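Problem: given the chain below (567 residues), write out its structure.
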Amino acid sequence: MRHPLAQMLTVAALTIVLGPFSQALAQQVLAQQVLAQDDAPVDVRILAINDFHGHLRPAPGGIRIADPDDKTETVVVPAGGAEQMASLLTQLREGHPNNIFVSAGDLIGASPLLSAMFHDEPTIESMSMMGLELSAVGNHEFDKGKDELLRMQNGGCHPIDKCQGPHPFSGAKFRYLAASTFDRATGKTIFPPYEIREFEGIPVAFIGLTLKGTPGIVSPAGIEGLEFRDEAVTVNALVPELAAHGVEAIVVLIHEGGFPTGDHNECPGISGPIVDIVKELDAAVGMVVSGHTHKAYVCDIDGRLVTSGDKFGTLVTAIDLKLDRTTKKIIGAKANNVIVRSNFYPKDPEQTALIDAYDKLATPIANRRAGSIKETLSRVPGDAGESVLGDIIADAQLAATSAAAKGDAVIALTNPGGIRTDIIKAEDGIAIYADLFASQPFRHQLVTLALTGAQIKDALEQQWIDPHRPRILQVSKGFSYVWDAAKPFGEHVIAARMSLDGKRIDPAARYRVTVNNYLSVGGDGFAVFKQGTGQQYGVYDVDALYAYFLANSPIAPTKADRIVRTN
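Solution.
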């Protein structure tokens, strides 16, 4: 609405021009202008990210998009970096006084060394400095357990490593939201389920929640005592409560997503959990910001805008809502995934100072030479589920635990979700510790245990617990097996074609098998590993990889023939 002084001046000007007898007409014109302004929708800009994963520096792989000159081809655009993202956010806020910066989760966890070395404190501080206000809790926020996540929110030194950073850690200045994550002991959510913000007097509720499948993809020990409820049921149950607060505009921030086939601002053929979730949401929900699948899309699902912004800070989603002043509902919504072009946007000085402060402490460790590689070691699996980098990591873990004193292992198995990036060949072929850490950022401890041949087969069958997203374990040299894609669950692995050093695996014999501590407690649904006996703990996974590089460089890709798929 216009300022009263401006209204008075308008009336006076019209009176001078038209004469005293036209004062009534001037007042009528002004009244119509004010009425038109009162009827105009309220514009709100939401700036959103998801799956940042501690990538304070630009992600090595950038973002792959459709070639603007030939849509049938793709190009890689250098993208990401907290310094550039902060500058882009400033630009996207200009001209939009009603704005809010939010996240759909996984800000931390599986992070590069610069953030992970300091327990992701640098990322929390970076996001706070950028003006992040609200974030859903992603599954990776639970990587180190509930108590560590609460420390991320509230601040304080790490309970074991104490204060390692350049200054005390004061916690997040933004608010985590967790509508569907309940503490069984109290019956309450571990963080507030929602937050209401007002824009020109119109309340907008932001509900934040993670995926109900979180228990199957994080360490069971880290979420002990927590319950993860159905996403749509949770949201719908909050609608009456929000209506009682006068809220008619609802935005959902959810750490769950889908799989489209188009470019970063498109949405052809989207599939995945987010589709069914959105279709089940109450009509009061106006739009959804999603994540988790590391995909980029701008969709219309069931008449609602649904967005996702890739991963590692390569995109900021600019969402423009229109709110009706009378009904207080969302009456318009559009979005644009804006690339954080690392070679275009200037570096924000505050972010640069923050990164430099941590970098001074991390650089001596990060730049240690690990060895060399002959070509890029890819984490991308082939049709059978085996990857070049997966083979090398499994070999490294076997090498670290094969000695009798260190575990006496004959097989090593590692989960593909723990392998986060390729190890990219530099011009000189040199690989440093930071490169290895980026590929194995969870710092899981190796555990060697005894399993029968039958138990090994049963563990391999659990790769298909989720038939839509099988998790094919990476295996060490000497061990191989064949699986049949046409068989039903529980019968995929052909027992007669499981072998170790050319000899068939004996179902009754016992084998020493190395896994990481995440798998050893049933992570990713591999419950069979909990049956292992004679557990012996070893080094951390990234340290095993570092030692392997030192001993075996230059490292070359292996032939991917350990896992064979039929049908």
